[in-house]
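Here is the promised in-class demo. Please do not try to memorize the tokens; focus on the logic of going from shape to residues.
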């Protein structure tokens, strides 16, 4: 997740690049809350009270973008803190230990640590894909150390093939 931020100025980390407002730093912020929620509070090891939960803005997508007074360093640090907290939870609890997700409906709120690990991994992978696309839209770079998406001539030819195939369906 954090590799997508490498080398970008603050503006590019924050700016919305999809109609829904998806942005890199917002995804990092969101996943910090996911980890503290599922592998913290839900397993009986609450982390810090995050500002977007404290003010209720999480329920209006306040965890999906960085406010002007939330610098990258703060949100990255919080995400790293969430990793450490999750690691401590996993060291302390077996995968079959009971867990309860307080914001889920009662009928399915009771679960296990292992189920929540799978959920956090899926959520992280899902949003890592978003980060890859957003980073490529910003500067053509792929996150995760994959470098540029190919030399310019190759990339133009490749995209033209895809466009031609799509155009054949008009």
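The designed amino acids, position by position:
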């Amino acid at each position: 997740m954090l590799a997508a931020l490498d080398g970008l100025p603050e503006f590019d980390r924050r700016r919305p690049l999809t109609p829904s407002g998806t942005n890199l730093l917002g995804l990092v912020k969101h996943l910090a809350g996911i980890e503290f929620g599922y592998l913290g509070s839900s397993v009986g090891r609450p982390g810090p009270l995050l500002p977007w939960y404290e003010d209720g803005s999480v329920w209006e997508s306040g965890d999906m973008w960085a406010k002007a007074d939330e610098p990258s360093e703060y949100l990255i640090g919080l995400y790293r803190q969430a990793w450490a907290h999750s690691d401590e939870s996993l060291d302390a609890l077996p995968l079959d230990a009971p867990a309860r997700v307080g914001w889920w409906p009662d009928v399915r709120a009771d679960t296990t640590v292992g189920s929540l690990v799978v959920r956090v991994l899926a959520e992280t992978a899902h949003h890592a894909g978003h980060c890859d696309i957003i980073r490529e839209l910003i500067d053509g770079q792929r996150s995760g150390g994959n470098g540029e998406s190919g030399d310019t001539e190759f990339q133009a030819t490749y995209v033209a093939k895809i466009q031609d195939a799509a155009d054949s369906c008009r």
